[in-house]
Amino acid sequence: MKILQVCIGAARSRLMAGHAVLTAIAKSPVAGPVAVYPLGLAGDEQADLTVHGGLAKAVYAYPSEHLPFWQTVRAQAGAAAWDAPPPPGLLGENLLLQGLLEQDLWIGDRLVLPGCVLAVSEPRLPCNKFAAAMGFAQAVKLMAQSGFSGAYLAVLEPGTLSAGDAIRLEPGPREVNLRELFRARAPAGTAAR
Questions:
Q1: pLDDT tens digit string along 23-58?
Q2: Angle 67-76/139-146 helices, nearest 10 degrees?
Q3: DSSP codes, 63-111
Q4: Domain spanning 2-185: which superfamily?
Q5: Residues contacting 123, CB < 8 A, separation 6+
Q6: Where do the domains of the chain lie?
Q7: Is pTM, for the whole model, over 0.90?
Q8: pLDDT tens digit string along 175-187?
Q9: Which tops the pLDDT comparison, 193 or 159?
């Protein structure tokens, strides 16, 4: 289990469904150690703090294992095909992970990294900005049906993190599984059971 990429982004205006919308969903990979604070990564922004960011959602992590799925369904949805899986940061993730899937994570699990400690706090719920970034309207429904939500993380011990950092998972109370919580919170009629 490790971090493949660390991504940050600034909030900017983007045309979505004919309207200018402030968003920071498209993030870009950065090199070297990145400082992580209680409210997130240095240089990273969230445009709508009512649904992103804050202490419980300071960092968004996404499994790299799901990227080929998005490449395939985008082409099937009639959007312009990608020659490779989506680039790191496109889904809004700060951390592109390898080896940590939603079904293996529980609320309260700790991700111990060489320079900081993060905790699984909740799943990400898809929104219209996610659909716009993916380039097709069905993306929200497909995230809900697949359960490929990724995880929001709280910062328990600030410090630094880098691409290549190994992750040690320390189990939390094992009361609420991330994928099950996502299915319970997903918009009605969209989540597979």
A1: 888 899 999 999 999 999 999 999 888 888 999 999
A2: 140
A3: EGGGHHHHHHHHHHTTSPPPSSSPPTTTTS-SEEEES--GGG-BTT-EE
A4: PK beta-barrel domain-like (2.40.33.20)
A5: 102, 149, 150, 151, 152, 178, 179, 181, 182, 185
A6: 2-185
A7: yes
A8: 999 999 999 998 6
A9: 159
